[in-house]
Amino acid sequence: MALPMRSVITGSGIALPQHLVTNDRLARIMDTSDEWIRTRSGIEQRYFAGPGLGSAELGSMAAEAAIRDAGLKPEDIDVVIFATMTPDHVLPGNGPLLQKRIGLRNVPTFDIRQQCSGFLYGLDLGDSLIKSGKFERVLLVGAETHSGFMPWDQGWRVVLGLSDDEPDEAEKSWNTQSRDRTVLFGDAAGAVVVERREQGAAGLLRTRLYSDGGVADALTMRGASFKQRPFVTKEQIAAGETIPVMNGREVFKTAVTLMPQAVRDVCADEGVTIEELDLVLVHQANLRIIEGVQKQLGLPAGKVPHNIERYGNTTAATLPLLFHECRQNGLAGPGALIAFTALGSGLHWGAALYRM
């Protein structure tokens, strides 16, 4: 009997901006410390883009690497899915910017906004487009430049290593007000090429996706809204309302409950046990959340790898970044059974089951 057609990841790539920012560097512009950040998040460093580098260009760099890794050329790509919550512009989206930058044909591009679950939703969308018969090869990108949210003034030169002159106490006090969020995020991009395959067991097996707008306020940005006139005001900027806000306790409790359940759901759909999983790749939001998911699933630490300590939370880029590293270091070898899971603003969450 012929094996079913699958959507198979044939290439992956990542891109990082040039500025590596340690916790100690952040401690120079606000009231924080390496110990304070590590204890609450597990993060040791992250990368920030300098002025002029946005998520479209960063995503394009990862996309080109993924296309090369798949042994393809840009003209081989049929459709683009770009997941980001930090696009270069409100309009247009990043998809056409990437299409032009890397020299694709005039293929359709989708820009999706599921925040931390963006790559997961994009994987499901790409699978649907392939199985519909419309497309053979999908380029899926997750990229973020969260540094655009950061409200620092003179402190930026210190953070980027361009100056050793620390900001005055007034600016340090202002920077400290949002330290619970600004220390968590980093900039990065990850991309995969997904292709149609009609033989073999490898490929995307199952997905489960969910949303619950009833808890949307748990992770949101209050300022800059088309509900108001004008879109953004000087008063909102001065009050820091263009920085995302988060109910950390509620997000933690929700994440360590819903992500493990989503993994159980896809495993049950496919008729496999949690113990049969070789890897669970969890959205890299916080080390304590990752360890909570691991505990809930009853898996050893080696099956739930993490890299948040080196990159911080890169939202839509975390899963492709972690997947690429697992491919590179041999953890995601041929035949490995992998579960992807994520939860983010919306709330959106879910899981995908994939066979290498």
> What order do the strands of the largest sheet run in, or round the barrel if closed?
1-7-6-4-5
Nearest-angstrom radius of gyration?
20 Å
How much helicity do the residues have? 25-40%
First-residue to last-residue Cα separation: 21 Å
By CATH, the superfamily of the largest domain comes out as Thiolase/Chalcone synthase
Number of domains: 2
Structure class: alpha/beta
- SSE order, as H and E? EEHHEHEHEHEHHHEEEHEHEHHHEE
Q: Per the principal axes of the C-alpha atoms, what is the gross shape?
A: globular
Strand content: 15-25%
The average pLDDT is 96
Major pleated sheet: 5 strands, mixed
The appropriate CATH architecture of the largest domain is 3-Layer(aba) Sandwich
Low-confidence regions:
none
CATH topology of the largest domain: Peroxisomal Thiolase, Chain A, domain 1
Q: How many beta-strand runs? A: 13
Give a verbal description of the structure:
By secondary structure, the protein is α/β, with parallel strands linked by helices. It contains 13 helices and 13 strands. The chain has a five-stranded mixed beta sheet, sandwiched between helices. The longest helix is centred in the last third of the chain and has 23 residues, at 248-270. The protein is globular, with a radius of gyration of 20 Å. The mean pLDDT is 96.
